[in-house]
Amino acid sequence: MPDLSRTVQRAALLNALRTFPVPTISVDDYALLCGISRPKAYENVREGRVAVWRDGRKVQVVTAPLLEALGYPLTPPGPLADGQASESSIVGAYASALGSSTDDVLALSGR
Fold it and tell me: Which residue, among 56, 8, 58, has the nearest Cα to 33 in the 3D structure?
């Protein structure tokens, strides 16, 4: 049986990334999210199996392709899925995904 605290941590991290996406995460967070060991995560980085961003010695895993690979695309549902990307369709897709009105989304964007 898996360690429940790791399962809860993994679920919380996934929820946070889907709610408030960040461009990169640590290799330790990558290991937690994928359910692999820390050495295996660094092996994946070394062998190029995961997209990374390097700043000197610091290595960060790029979030968007990782979430896509795990089956959690960052593209909102609705009219954007078919390639129609007008401003009104984008606002409408985000509004429906957030459960808000288009006026609320426009207010959040400063329009």
Answer: 8
Cβ proximity of 31 and 66 under 8 Å: no
CA-CA distances (angstroms) from residue 39 to 13, 21, 27, 64, 101? 20, 25, 10, 22, 46
DSSP tally for the chain: helices H, then strands E: 6, 3
Residues in the chain: 111
pLDDT (tens digit, 9 = 90+) per residue, 48-86? 999 999 989 999 999 988 988 888 876 655 555 555 566
- Domains of the chain, CATH where assigned: 4-69 (1.10.10), 79-108 (no CATH)
Neighbours of 18 (CB within 10 A): 12
Average pLDDT, the chain: 78
Full-prediction pTM beyond 0.85?
no
Dihedral angle sign, alpha carbons of residues 59, 64, 70, 108 = positive
